[in-house]
Amino acid sequence: MNYDLVIFDWDGTVMDSTARIVECMHSAGRDLDLPVLDDDTVRGIIGLGLPEAIRTLYPDIDDPMLGRMRDRYDVIVLVDMRARQILDGSQVGTVPPRYAGGIGQVGVRALDEFVSAGGTLVCLNASSMFAVEHLPLPVENVVAELDNQEFFLNASVVELIVDTSHPVMSGMSEEAAAMVGGSPVFTVSEGFEGAVLAKYQEKGSPLLSGYLLGEEHMQGYAAALDVHHGDGHVILLGLRPQWRGQPYGTFRVLFNAALHSAEVAAMTPSNPGFWSPPVKEEPEEKKGEERTAAR
């Protein structure tokens, strides 16, 4: 039987990232004339925030040297996890001890410092709201407070309108299919600086495959953002670019985002006309109340 395309689950199937993490830490240690530790020792820090990981491996490292180690990283990617999972992680006893717990407030501060100093944080799907809530960012999820009777969209394929001039969307079509599920729908609030990378159409349904209830809550809103934070960037992807059911069309978004260093961001063209926040219509009841009050 001949196949045109074979799709694998990424984590643990296509790639085991453990060896690459070990290799990166070895390389950073050699560049800074620090002892190169054995593989098992380095594996033990996987899951920790970067500053905590470095101090665990090199307890005597001073702050300037810690800064030089952190400068080895341009981009950090957060996988599709909810904020509580990122903060608190797995409980002791449910996983091997070295994997228990989350990044905690120490990790939040480290990520904030990393981005503010010029780094790029990429957030896939649900992890976007972790960054919005904890950095924090002037961004809102307009479907966050809606129940399943008002809005439901899960494991579906939708059509996005894409700003192909932005490096994160390089190579995409202006109208592109993307996998979503439990995904945020963005608008921005006062103080926002940055760009919208992809948006939903202003009329009709974006659904291509699956099930959608409440399309009106998506119309005209943003699906992906590049948020300026300090001297750095937070890329919020309200979709699943790596999801095994739809990677062929959107894998490039993930790889482009992972390469969105400060140098690339500095060359990004401005496209302010691509999107503006939809104007919400007031409910009829509220309009009636205002008319009554005016009399």
If you had to describe this structure to a student in words, what would you say it looks like?
The protein has 295 residues and is α+β, with helices and mostly antiparallel strands. It folds into two domains: 63 residues, DNA polymerase, domain 1 (Orthogonal Bundle), CATH 1.10.150; 199 residues, Rossmann fold (3-Layer(aba) Sandwich), CATH 3.40.50. It is 31% helix and 19% strand. The protein is built from ten helices and twelve strands. Strands 1, 2, 5, 6, 8, 9, 11 and 12 form an eight-stranded mixed beta sheet that branches. A two-stranded antiparallel sheet has the order 3-7. It has a two-stranded antiparallel sheet with strand order 4-10. The termini are far apart. The model has no long low-confidence stretch (mean pLDDT 86).
Q: Topology of this protein?
A:
Layout: H1 18-31, H2 39-43, H3 50-57, H4 63-70, E1 75-78, H5 83-88, H6 104-116, E2 120-124, H7 127-134, E3 139-141, E4 152-153, E5 156-162, E6 175-180, E7 186-188, E8 194-199, E9 207-209, E10 212-213, E11 222-229, E12 232-237, H8 247-258, H9 262-266, H10 284-294
Parallel strand pairs: 1-2, 2-12
Antiparallel strand pairs: 3-7, 4-10, 5-6, 5-8, 5-9, 8-11, 11-12
Could you name the key traits of this structure?
31% helix; globular; 2 domains; DNA polymerase, domain 1; 295 residues; alpha+beta; 8-stranded mixed sheet; Rossmann fold; two-stranded antiparallel sheet
Short description:
The protein has ten helices and twelve strands. It is an alpha+beta fold and 295 residues long.
Note the main sheet. 8 strands, mixed
Strand tally is 12
Q: H/E order of the elements?
A: HHHHEHHEHEEEEEEEEEEHHH
The CATH topology of the largest domain is given as Rossmann fold
Mean pLDDT: 86
Rg over CA atoms, rounded to whole Å, is 21 Å
Number of separate domains: 2
Q: In CATH, what is the class of the largest domain?
A: Alpha Beta
- In the CATH hierarchy, the architecture of the largest domain is 3-Layer(aba) Sandwich
Q: Tell the overall outline.
A: globular
* C-alpha termini separation: 76 Å
Ranges with pLDDT <50 over ≥5 residues? none
- What proportion of the residues form beta strands (DSSP E)? 15-25%
Oligomer: single chain
What is the count of helical runs? 10
